[in-house]
Structure formats: structure tokens, C-alpha cells
């Protein structure tokens, strides 16, 4: 329907010159080549910053009425075959000590680190060092610790990170929450 309306638009509203005739007759022949582009125009977002929230949909009603034992029996052969692989499960916790170098002091790097670590649910600490770097200890799930490492590579807006050194840590105590420690 949209294709025919585009063709009708060109025939209903032709471009006229002062002589009363269509000035660009070749446009009618080139229009079919432009149709894929014209049809895609309404799919291009007007603003990239407008993001719709991702909603988690509830399970379908027919799955809710099934007893739990039956749901497990449906998926148990699949999960049993996945557990037979030779790969061990990932460790429950990962602890790393990170040294961040560059313009990282005086730009609220420690406050930014505390905020991000608490957001990710990590344990540990952050502190300034006298050599101008920032040192931190991150402990938590491996995926969240890796995410925090990536965030530290960028840092807050006013920081300029030139180097990030990551050391596995087994003997440092992360504590029970994430805190800001005094300069060492």
C-alpha cells in the first residue's frame, strides 16, 4: 500500500515548469530504485539517545499452570548434557589489586570508584598513593570485577588513565563492603 502511494504521489503532484509540462521526466523512472531507501526511512531513529527501557516479560500463562516438577523434567536432559563438559564452573569470587596511573588524583577518581564498585556490589577499597597513582582492591563475582576493571580504564570524565596494572590477590582482605582508605 505504501509503495503504490509513493507512485501515486509522483503522478498526482508532478513538477511543472512555466510551460505547464513536467520538467524532470526521468524522476518517474528512477523512483523504483529509491524505494528500498524510502521504505527504510521510517525505521531510522530520530535521536540515538532515546532508548526504550527493556522490560522483562512474565512467562506465558500456560507455563505457569504446570507443576514445578514437570518444568524441571522438561529441562533436565538439557542441563544434564551441559554439565558433562570438561569445563569446570567459574570460581564464585575473584579478587584483584589494581594500580591506575595517569591524571587520576584531584579528579574525584576515588569517589567515582566507590560509587561504581557499590553499584556493582563489589567489596574492597580504594586509596591514593604518594607516587600520584590510585590503588584499589576489587572482590566479587568474576564478571563484575572484570566490568569494574574496564570502567577504571576509562575513569571519571576529568581523569586521563595512561596505565592500568591488574594483579591477582589472594592474601588481601577485601572486607565486607567497599570503602575509601587514606593515602599511603
Automatic annotation (TrEMBL):
The Acylphosphatase-like domain, residue ranges: 95-182
GO molecular function annotations of the record: acylphosphatase activity
Catalytic reactions of this protein: an acyl phosphate + H2O = a carboxylate + phosphate + H(+)
UniProt family annotation: Belongs to the acylphosphatase family.
PROSITE patterns named in the record: ACYLPHOSPHATASE_1, ACYLPHOSPHATASE_2, ACYLPHOSPHATASE_3
Keyword Hydrolase: yes
Domain of life: Eukaryota
Gene3D superfamilies: 3.30.70.100
SUPFAM superfamilies reported in the protein's UniProt record: Acylphosphatase/BLUF domain-like
Source organism of the structure: Penstemon smallii
EC number: 3.6.1.7
One Pfam family here: Acylphosphatase
Keyword line: Hydrolase
Keyword Hydrolase on entry: yes
EC class of the enzyme, as a word: hydrolase
UniProt-annotated catalytic positions: 110, 128
Descriptive protein name: Acylphosphatase
Amino acid at each position: 500500500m505504501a509503495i503504490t502511494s509513493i507512485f501515486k504521489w509522483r503522478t498526482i503532484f508532478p513538477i511543472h515548469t512555466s510551460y505547464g509540462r513536467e520538467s524532470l521526466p526521468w524522476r518517474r523512472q528512477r523512483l523504483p530504485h529509491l524505494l528500498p531507501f524510502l521504505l527504510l526511512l521510517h525505521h531510522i531513529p530520530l535521536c540515538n539517545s532515546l532508548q526504550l527501557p527493556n522490560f522483562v516479560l512474565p512467562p506465558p500463562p500456560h507455563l505457569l499452570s504446570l507443576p514445578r516438577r514437570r518444568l524441571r523434567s522438561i529441562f533436565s536432559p538439557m542441563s544434564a548434557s551441559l554439565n558433562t563438559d570438561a569445563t569446570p564452573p567459574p570460581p564464585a569470587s575473584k579478587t584483584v589489586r589494581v594500580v591506575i596511573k595517569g591524571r587520576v588524583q584531584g579528579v574525584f577518581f576515588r569517589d567515582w570508584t566507590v560509587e561504581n564498585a557499590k553499584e556493582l556490589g563489589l567489596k574492597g577499597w580504594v586509596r591514593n598513593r604518594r607516587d600520584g597513582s590510585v590503588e584499589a582492591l576489587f572482590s566479587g563475582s568474576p564478571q563484575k570485577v572484570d566490568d569494574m576493571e574496564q570502567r577504571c580504564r576509562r575513569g571519571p570524565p576529568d581523569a586521563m588513565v595512561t596505565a592500568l596494572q591488574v594483579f591477582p590477590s589472594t592474601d588481601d582482605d577485601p572486607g565486607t563492603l567497599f570503602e575509601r582508605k587514606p593515602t599511603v
